[in-house]
Amino acid sequence: MFTTFDFLQIIIFVGLLIGLTPIMGNYMYKVFTGEKHLMSAPLGWFERLTYKLVGVNSTEETNWKSYAFGLLLFNLIGFLFVFLLQLTQAFLPLNPTNLPNVSWHSAFNTAASFMTNTNWQGYSGETTMSYLVQMLALTVQNFVSAATGIAVLIALARGLSRKTTDKLGNFWVDLTRSTLYVLLPLSILLAVIFVSQGVIQNFDTYQTAHTLQGAQQVIPMGPVASQESIKLLGTNGGGFFNSNSSHPFENPTPLSNLLQMLAIFLIPAGLTFMYGKMVGSKRHGWTIFTVMLILFFAGLAISLYGEYSANPIFGHSALMEGKETRFGITHSVLYSVVTTDASCGAVNAMHDSLSPLAGMVAMVNMMLGEVIFGGVGAGLYGMVVFIILTVFIAGLMVGRTPEYLGKKVERFEVTMAIIANVITSFSILLFTAWAATSALGLSSLNNAGPHGFSEILYAFDSGTGNNGSAFAGLNANTVFYNLTIGFAMLIGRFGVIIPILAIAGSMAKKKITPVSAGTFQTNNWLFIALLIGVILIVGGLTYFPALSLGPIVEHLLMNNGITF
Amino acid sequence: MTTKSNKSIFNKKLLARAAKDSLTKLNPVSLIKNPVIFIVGIGAFLTTIIVFIGIFQGAYSSFNLQISIWLWFTVLFANFSEAIAEGRGKAQAESLRKNRTQTVARKMVGDKETEVLAPDLRKGDIVVCEVNDIIPSDGEVIEGIASVDESAITGESAPVIRESGGDRSAVTGGTKVLSDRILIRISADAGDTFMDRMIALVEGAKRQKTPNEIALTILLSGLTIIFLLAVVTLPAFFGYSLTASGISLSHNLSIPVLIALLVCLIPTTIGGLLSAIGISGMDRLIQRNVIATSGRAIEAAGDVDVLLLDKTGTITLGNRMATDFIPAEGVTVEELADAAQLSSLSDETPEGRSIVILAKEKFNIRGRDITNLHATFIPFTAQSRMSGVDLKTPEGKVHQIRKGSSEAIRTFVQENNGIFSQKVIDTVSDLARQGATPLVVAEDNKVLGVIHLKDIVKGGIKQRFAELRQMGIRTVMITGDNSLTAAAIAAEAGVDDFMAEATPEDKLRRIREEQEKGYLVGMIGDGTNDAPALAQADVGIAMNSGTQAAREAGNMVDLDSNPTKLIEVVEVGKQLLMTRGALTTFSIANDVAKYFAIIPAISIALYAGSNGQGPLSALNIMKLGSPESAILSAIIFNALIIIALIPLALKGVPYRPISANRALAKNLFIYGLGGLVAPFVGIKIIDLLINL
Questions:
Q1: How far apart are CA A438 and CA B468, in angstroms?
Q2: Closest residue of B to A456, CA-based?
Q3: In B204-254, where does DSSP find H-type helix?
Q4: Which of A149, A308, A468, B658 could form a disulfide with A345 if both were Cys (CB 3.0 to 4.6 A apart)?
Q5: Interacting residues of A249 by C-beta distance below 8 A, sequence separation 6+
Q6: How far apart are CA A471 and CA A354, in angstroms?
């Protein structure tokens, strides 16, 4: 039964989120506009030292192409580092359990996955990756992939707020600041709280325990808390353990669970506020926040309905399969919606076991392009793609060339926004079609019928959306899936980042038309309704046939008493 | 235009030609210009081939044939909409051509006249035109004055004056000299004259896609690609589901069904009507007697934030009118009125006449026999800045009555040893502050009083400006008056701002300043002085009566030379963009219903139980008769909606001057919500008809 208590917990979660949004937003605004802030005294020297060591002139700003080039170069280096470290981990220190080198295709997949902030894990963490790889490769990518996302958003906000310039800022500065001032302090703070709740943080060898039945059980250990906090704050989602946040060492208490969900939304929500302030309209920031919140509630409501409604096969009890009794249904569903909204991919329940409708919500959240709060930076810049399309389609109806924040939306911006949109559909649909028709794809399935189809669809959806959560029924650690999902992640990440930076560059060059009564407003309820409409119709309708053959038909079949 | 066309959009001749043209437009070379419709064309072609293959293999499918027919109709309807929009322009172009006769020009070489054919004239040639000559080409009057019949281009039969030197020096090829003799320097080569451009323009021959239209085409193409991906991958997903349901893969979706789904999903409605909307936008301008040199200018007109408007002619009636007589100390108002009337009796300016009328209306002072008064009239000159009358009394004494600006009269009175009293000075500045022009009247050395000359603000103009303000457009009044007067008139007319004592350089500077702040500026002008400002403005409308330089500088020409036209042009631009947005929204919103028609229809067999009805039939919320009728209804609706919306595309969505927010809410309600609901109703009705 869904009780008042469940309801209250959701309200508390959302209340905290709304309260923290302006605080985070203001802080990040100061960080990225170079104002004095809380951390500039204790950490400022470190920032300056970094620039000196790397040889970056922090006052020099670049155009969009150089910004994109710096970003791509940095990501390529990160990718190669993670890739090579996995291939050689057996020869390197901090490997107490003597794990062997990782296969090339799995290493490719994992390198792509962590570089793109996806953290799809085709492998099982505790039996594949040494402590060195987990810390030096994966945890570092957890920070910098998140920082990359934030940097893109900052560049975009600058492009929209500046006029007649081609300068978007300095990628290295934005990267350093987001890592040093935003991600690092928060994850240290959160890690300490997690440790207080019982999350482990050690370098011990795996422990062996004797169960009551007399069996032996190996219990993996490791520096979990430090990876845990950035896993959530950076909307990464790659767990230290395969069972991710349903593992008691990752997520031990109801409080840690609440904090985890908050940590996932904290930065993406704060960024909406910061964005509004940067582009000169806090109200616009809140408008975007509201759109995200409405879509979040809609998904949550459908998921809760799916989970709590009567399952004709098992009578009228809500299903606990794949869920932790510690968290119960509401918190499992809430977590699943939060994590798929935010391109995080951390899970505290098995999404494969969700009811068809809740599973569909998770998929739709990802198909919409991870724009409901979304990945750090990525969610909001993905949302701006939809805003540009909305402004263009509906803006014409006020009888002017469409404008966004005073900037005319013209051929170039429309082209880029459409490319970002086409490219993600391309990746999800074509890869799914390939997997659904080839023996390579079908041999990995654990489930039959529409559910099997959902598993494939979910995998490419999650990869392209840079989410990283899995339906888990699928054995994805094969050459086929490692490569296809690996490419889906790369396409889904850079196929959006580059058009966005191009838009930022082109917008920066334009003049800003001052607001008048003839201006199409992007900060009122009408716009909220419009934007939601465009997100659902343009972003979602493409997938309606695929969804109807997956979760929708599964839901209808379940009501007829057939499951898979 | 020779015919100021208010005729209905459709007439039989036009429809017949459009129907014929829509067939010739099936040519792939012209079809590919419209990517969305081109895709439909390919689909139609493929289904037709499949139908024929079926016939040869003895497996004729009437369902496939019907799909193929309706796909062809979709393409034809889209072509038809374009053809009918173009057809109206073609009809106008024909009537223009009739006026362009093969004229023989009288070219001047030195002092000698030689006859050459008009097309052989080159830029810089000098020709002479006399009574009943057709002016051979565009040019500038360099000598003489003539009255010209310009009805061939303006449709206005009253002759206009064209003279060298001033702001009325431009003449247009094809117009006719009615009196006198003028020398013209030709300013356009053959084929590039105003008339040529106008014909090309209304015919749509030179029509290029405007920036916004291109951007929209890209958006529509992008959506087409996305839906193409969705449809192309569907057989793979479907095949999986068939296998899972234990059905043979040979039951996978047929190509005609996939094409039908694709055509339903891609934005064919707006894709089909897009060019008709653009052409008819241009057409609406032409109907208002405005010629735009590019479609870009019309779009820019919709975006204009600031309008620079000349006071005279736009905001006020051209003439000032006397409304009051204010006597000086010791003078009765009748004495003043009498003197004012005397001084104005032969003053043929509108101001002068209004003084005579006021004197008659207020004090019943009638016209007098001028010769009996032994009066000599002193006309206004730029030096004296006064006019008036000298009266010879029977004693032979001469009384000088003068009216003029206060400075001029002050000098005049003081030269005659008179006094210009403080009260008069006060009255004068008082009137100026009210936006009026004070005219002081004096007799010899005595100031009699002041005439109140008032600028008359046009009726309804204040309302017009209020509407513009609601649309977010600022109006700036430009006047040569001093700032006191200008401020008063600006307040009365309700403009947002004014520029007093404005020189052409001031105008140019003001436009640059506004553009610097990010505003788009529109202005209307006529003189050579205005040319730089017209060129600088985003929308510059030159009056046809103006100089050639002004006409070249602007991006539109108003054939009626009516300064308020600027406001109408803005409205046409806004309406054009609104129509595009409304139909795009409508088209995209349509997709929801089509999914609900087609998806359950194609997947009825999947995971079916004993009754043969798969679970996805639950999505058949419209309760359509059969899978075939559902698909056909969707595609028939998709085709018919194009035809149904042609009148809207041609006329434009109803336009009212309201704020962006209200316009959006209104259009969103009609075309967004309407677009969501209409196809549910339409498809259901068609399905019922099919299953009768």
A1: 63
A2: B237
A3: 211-244
A4: A468
A5: A198, A199, A200, A224, A240, A241
A6: 9
B668 chain-A contacts, CB cut-off 8 A: 394, 397, 526, 530
d(CA A397, CA A73) in angstroms, rounded, equals: 42
Phi-psi region of A200 (alpha: psi -120 to 50; beta: other; left: phi over 0): beta
Catalytic residue positions of B, numbered: 310
Rounded average pLDDT over B140-152: 83
For testing the chain B interface, which of A398, A403, A444 should be mutated: the one with the most B CBs within 10 Å? A398
Q: What is the DSSP letter of A223?
A: -
Distance between CA B133 and CA B148 in Å, rounded? 10
Instruction: Please provide residue B137's backbone torsions phi and psi, each rounded to the nearest 5 degrees.
Output: -160, 175
Q: Which amino acid is at A115?
A: M
Residue in B215, B577, B606 closest to A400 by CB: B577
d(CA A18, CA A12): 10
Chain A residue with CA closest to B474: the answer is A516
Determine if residue B222 is left, alpha or beta; phi over 0 gives left, psi from -120 to 50 gives alpha, anything else beta. Answer: alpha
Q: Give DSSP secondary structure letters for A534-563.
A: HIIIIIIGGGHHHHIIIIIHHHHHHHTT--
Name the residue among A206, A198, A271, A287 with its Cα closest to residue A234: A271
Contact with chain A for residue B619, Cβ under 8 A = yes
- Size of chain A, expressed as the number of residues it contains: 564
Tokens standing for residue A514: 């001052």
Distance CA B450, CA B428 (A): 7
Residue in B222, B240, B520 nearest the CB of A453: B240
Nearest-angstrom CA–CA distance, B540 and B533 = 8
Give the tens place of pLDDT for each residue, B633-680. 999 999 999 999 999 999 999 888 888 888 899 999 999 999 999 999
Contact yes or no for B281/B572 (Cβ under 8 A): yes
C-alpha–C-alpha distance, residues B9 and A531, integer Å: 36
Decide if A425 touches B, using CB distance below 8 A. yes
Are the C-beta atoms of B273 and B539 separated by less than 8 Å? no
In chain B, residues with a C-beta closer than 8 Å to the C-beta of A394 are 581, 585, 664, 668, 672
Residue owning tokens 């009498």: B338
Q: Which range in A214-223, B17-26, B266-275 is most confidently predicted, on average pLDDT?
A: B266-275
With H, G, I as helix, E, B as strand and everything else as coil, classify residue B97: helix
Chain A CB contacts of B218 under 8 Å are 411, 414-415, 418
Q: What is the dihedral of CA B405, B407, B413, B414, to 10 degrees?
A: 180
ipTM: 0.91
- In the structure encoding, which two tokens stand for residue B201, read together? 């323009």
CA dist., res. B78 & res. B17, Å (int):
15
Classify burial at A478, counting beta carbons within 10 Å of its beta carbon; exposed 0-12, middle 13-18, buried 19 or more: middle
- Selecting from A163, A453, A516 the residue whose C-beta is nearest the C-beta of B305 gives A516
Res B669: pLDDT = 93
Q: To which H or E segment does residue A235 belong? A: none
Pairwise CB contact (< 8 Å): B591 & A425:
no
